[in-house]
Amino acid sequence: MSNTIEFDYKPALEFVEQREIDRMGELCVNARKELLSREGLGNDFLGWIDLPVDYNKEEFDRIKEAAKQIQKDSEVLIVIGIGGSYLGARAAIEFLTPSFNNQLSKEERNGAPEIYFAGNNISGSYLQDLIKIIGDRDFSVNVISKSGTTTEPAIAFRVFKKMLEEKYGKEGAAKRIYATTDRQKGALKSLADEEKYHTFVIPDDVGGRFTVLTPVGLLPIAAAGCDIDALMKGAQAQREIALNNDFASNPSLQYAALRNLFLRKGKVMEILVDYEPSLHSLAEWWKQLFGESEGKDGRGLFPASYDLSTDLHSLGQFVQDGTRIMFETVLNVVKPPKDITIDKEPVDIDGINYLSGKTFDFVNKNAMKGTRLAHTDGQVPNLLVNIPQQDAFCLGSVFYFFEFAVGVSGYLLGINPFDQPGVEDYKRNMFGLLGKPGYEDLTDDLKARLGE
Ligand code: PA5
Q1: Pocket test for ligand 1, best of 44, 45, 79, 85 (most atoms within 8 A of CB)
Q2: Distance from C-alpha of 241 to C-alpha of 62, rounded to nearest angstrom
Q3: What dotted CATH number matches 57-230?
């Protein structure tokens, strides 16, 4: 097996004919042409296509320097951001580091700080608990927001900025605040310039959900001690394949084709399935990528995810036997980083001795294969993404595979995959209810509707 990912649609072949796939493949090749012509919908947000080869090398080196500085002077790093401004970093750190990384000693983490995420919810309880975790230890903050005005990260940043200033003074705090934001405009950019924070740029032509390979993702990932050179190399390798290979050897195009075939055959939901807990946040990243890109104009597949075998004991019943609306895309880590062999008990009370000498991964893989067949029998088609191992190169490859697929898939759907008009609606209502200046006209109407 190569060290880039593989896409396998053979398990779904009893639901689609090869000739249908080939026809959809031709449409995918055309959609790729449109994407690469940079003349299609949303063409001012295509910076992600060349990012793995065309990134700011000077800034990349500064990211590594900043990561080293954070490792040197901080026990804890707080990463503040929401949506595209945090999901990629979280996905990468959980994929690449041990399961209970924050509970290990700094030495065991090779000098990396504990990393916590904030500003991705509006819970005061969560923040209070996080403040307690920091205690009186040294910490730094990476605040990430393109606009600088997103409510969730903005109010969380106020809390940690004040804490840093009280602990280190204004100048000392500025040395511990890393702001990742717009090149020249926005509230965070103005504040960062005024207070002399370290700053990193979110490129104008890369939308939030495509920013994992920009400083948005790279700084926290590097601070966690992960290899961002290998991450970029994996993305480069997958980019070569996505841009140049024909349909028969192009995982991104094949994946775009299959999911659109299932949509046209009446499936309305895609479930991304993982069998390793450390892939949970990768699925969260994927949900934003596909949900925000495709869910518009009354179209698109609803992207859901679950962790197996855990959720076989809850949602598994529905997937096997409930309303027939879904297909599954399974993330299969071919060789997990660690394993355990099952022991033999002298008295076989639980009847498990037949597994003695076998590894957890052996059991997990058989759970995966058995589930795939059961769900297929239950009319839930299965697609397979084989990830050779959990390293930075493979992860870079996974990120680019999905990003390119969503661009092609969105064009097949006839929508603009690079905007997100729908996320503004809740914000208008929230601002109206909170009394934000400029939204007064909405307040009375909303309160009347709520019966307040
Ligand atoms: O994909 C997107 O554009 C959104 O998820 C944004 O990333 C999210 O709303 C955060 O926006 P900002 O970076 O401006 O704070």
Answers
A1: 85
A2: 29
A3: 3.40.50.10490
